């Protein structure tokens, strides 16, 4: 007996056996039940989702004398005749019969009445491959179809079908089949052919099927040829996924910024003959698993990996920083897209590796965050002996690494939204305002500058608003830092907005500062200032800043602000004549 592939052997013959496409099946069954058969259908959807199978069942069902629940009965004379092969159901592969002659031929033949049943059904697969003139010929037929004709056009690329054809068809979209359904189907197939399997192996095959039943069954068939029992190891060997341990060590090294190990492991894997593209895919898969393990409580169930492998993924996840995982994933996804244009894929891969494993070579904000997280870990391990110090230093994230203990306690928890930054106080309420109320003897920092009398400070305040020096010495650490942090967050958010490229480019070199709760952004290029002060850009900036709690901000041209500063200093000197005034 000739070998029959699993997919053909288990090709569904009734609507009940169709995996997942209930929405399509229901429409068709209802039409059969009511005897309202249309003349033209368009089945769209990814390959292997069941378009042709459904078309064949439908073609037999419309002809069946006693359809059972919409499906062909398989017993009546018509069903038996159609099973033998009949001229009444024609399948045309438009990929190889795409010319105008084939369509003209079809137009002639469709005029003859059916031989066995009530309808002549034409299934045209890959219909988007037809030439323009062939489409025109088909359109003529669709415009005036004989009463006994039914056309089922199937395609993976509906956007390539002319509108004139589309408008004459009833369109039914086939969905990708979820992994869960694929798994169930594969298990029932394996059970019926009496093959033993590991659950993890089935899950891996379903994942590789990527929504397509046909692809999944062909992969399963390859795996069954590899070994009599389906094991996870066997499946990964067939799929060419590198030995898990090595890839896991590689990803661990990337996330741990261990460049030498990452490079030597890559060297080893590629030397074993693995293609660059496949390794890249393996890395991405593993990064994805690590991300899931890091962030989901039910990761073990979601990933359905064998226990030993899951333990390894979990280990990498708990050692890695969340930002580093995201950043590495972004880098490799980008590289995957670029790979097909790369003249040397290997160099592209290694560059990506270097960037991912060495955030210090990168100046973007994500890279900086990763570096900060690394520093924090080092600081945390340095102060590990001090009780309670470790969680604190972890809490007081990026810039505020050295905030005194009691100050950290005053801080109220801001609304959770942007995880890595949450612990930063909003810019309007700088933490340095809090301690003086709580503590009996705060350090009189402000009095350092003007020694004899404190009262002129009242006048000094408006001056500070113009963004000049006195405020800065008053709060040497927190003021400028806050503005910078806020601005960093602002840039980060801005970059993620759609169509913000130009604005981001204009903003990235601004110099942030703070004066009286107002964020001052300075540039030394006049056109940049003018552009940013334009209505549209200003509105966009305001929106992003508002999300960060900043309601007032100003974009300044540098030399203008210098002039203001000078005026201010002159004024100050006049007001405080007699006192030593020093402006930095
Ligand atoms: Zn029948």
Structure description:
- With 584 residues, the protein is α/β, with parallel strands linked by helices.
- The protein has four domains: 6-173, P-loop containing nucleotide triphosphate hydrolases (Rossmann fold), CATH 3.40.50; 179-239, Orthogonal Bundle (Helicase, Ruva Protein, domain 3), CATH 1.10.8.60; 244-368, Zinc Finger, Delta Prime, domain 3 (Up-down Bundle); 473-575, GMP Synthetase, Chain A, domain 3.
- The chain has 29 helices and eight strands.
- The strands form two sheets. A five-stranded parallel β-sheet has the order 2-3-4-1-5, covered by helices on one side. Strands 6-7-8 form a three-stranded mixed β-sheet.
- Helix 9 runs parallel beside helix 11.
- The longest helix has 20 residues, at 276-295.
- The N and C termini lie far apart (94 Å).
- Zinc ion is lined by residues 64-66, 72-73, 75-76, 78-79.
């Amino acid at each position: 007996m000739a070998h029959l592939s699993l997919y053909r052997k288990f090709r569904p013959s009734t609507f009940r056996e169709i995996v997942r496409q209930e929405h399509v099946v229901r429409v068709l069954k209802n039409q059969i039940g009511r005897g309202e058969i249309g003349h033209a259908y368009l089945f769209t959807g990814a390959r292997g989702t069941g378009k042709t199978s459904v078309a064949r069942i439908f073609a037999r069902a419309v002809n069946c004398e006693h359809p059972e629940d919409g499906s062909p009965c398989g017993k009546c004379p018509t069903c038996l005749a159609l099973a033998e092969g009949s001229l009444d159901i024609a399948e045309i592969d438009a990929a190889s019969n795409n010319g105008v002659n084939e369509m003209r031929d079809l137009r002639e033949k469709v005029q003859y009445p059916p031989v066995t049943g009530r309808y002549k059904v034409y299934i045209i697969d890959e219909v988007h491959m037809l030439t323009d003139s062939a489409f025109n010929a088909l359109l003529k037929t669709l415009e005036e179809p004989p009463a006994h004709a039914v056309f089922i056009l199937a395609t993976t690329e509906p956007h390539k079908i002319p509108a004139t054809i589309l408008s004459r068809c009833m369109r039914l979209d086939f969905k990708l089949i979820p992994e869960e359904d694929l798994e169930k189907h594969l298990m029932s197939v394996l059970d019926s052919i009496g093959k033993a399997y590991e659950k993890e192996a089935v899950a891996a095959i379903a994942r590789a099927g990527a929504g397509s039943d046909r692809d999944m069954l062909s992969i399963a068939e390859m795996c069954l040829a590899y070994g009599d029992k389906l094991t996870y190891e066997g499946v990964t060997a067939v799929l060419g996924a590198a030995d898990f341990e090595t890839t896991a060590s590689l990803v661990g090294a990337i996330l741990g910024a261990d460049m030498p190990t990452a490079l030597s492991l890559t060297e080893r894997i590629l030397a074993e003959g693995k293609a660059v593209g496949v390794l890249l895919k393996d890395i991405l898969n593993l990064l994805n698993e690590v991300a899931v393990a890091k962030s989901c409580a039910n990761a073990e169930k979601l990933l359905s990996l064998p226990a030993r492998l899951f333990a390894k993924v979990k280990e990498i996840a708990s050692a890695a920083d969340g930002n580093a995982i995201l950043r590495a994933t972004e880098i490799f996804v980008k590289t995957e897209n670029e790979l097909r244009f790369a003249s040397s894929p290997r160099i592209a891969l290694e560059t990506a590796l270097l960037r991912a494993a060495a955030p210090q070579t990168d100046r973007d904000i994500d890279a900086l965050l990763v570096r900060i997280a690394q520093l924090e870990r080092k600081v945390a391990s340095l102060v590990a002996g001090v009780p309670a110090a470790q969680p604190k230093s972890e809490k007081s994230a990026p810039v505020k690494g050295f905030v005194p203990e009691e100050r950290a306690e005053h801080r109220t928890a801001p609304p959770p939204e942007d995880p890595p930054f949450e612990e930063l106080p909003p810019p309007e309420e700088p933490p340095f305002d809090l301690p003086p109320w709580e503590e009996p003897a705060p350090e009189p920092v402000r009095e350092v500058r003007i020694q004899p009398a404190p009262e002129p400070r009242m006048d000094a305040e408006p001056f500070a608003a113009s963004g000049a020096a006195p405020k800065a010495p008053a709060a040497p650490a927190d003021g400028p830092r806050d503005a910078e942090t806020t601005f960093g967050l602002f840039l980060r958010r801005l970059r993620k907005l759609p169509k913000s490229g130009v604005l981001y480019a204009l903003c990235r070199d601004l110099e942030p500062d703070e004066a009286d709760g107002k964020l001052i952004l300075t540039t030394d290029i006049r056109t940049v200032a003018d552009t940013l002060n334009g209505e549209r850009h200003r509105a966009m900036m305001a929106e992003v800043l508002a999300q960060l709690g900043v309601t007032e901000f100003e974009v300044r041209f540098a030399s203008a602000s210098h002039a203001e500063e000078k005026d201010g200093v002159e004024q100050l000197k006049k007001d405080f004549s007699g006192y030593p005034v020093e402006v930095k």
